[in-house]
Amino acid sequence: xxxxxxxxxxxxxxxxxxxxxxxxxxxxxxxxxxxxxxxxxxxxxxxxxxxxxxxxxxxxxxxxxxxxxxxxxxxxxxxxxxxxxxxx
Length: 88
Known about the structure:
This protein is an all-alpha fold. The protein is about 70% helix and about 0% strand.
């Protein structure tokens, strides 16, 4: 198996999502903060982008859903005018 640049992009996305999850589990990141949704959106976009080169429908579907839900979370954080968005 050849390791191409898009594999690196996908693995970077995986690392971002796993790091985010670990930070939440260890109490170092707030799930309600904009940073949580932002890093999940970036990570899933990188994974989905890598799938364009070696397509897998199931993996693409979950990454698209993860991305859309993360974008919804960002919209919620920034549209709630009564609460100032928390950092990271």
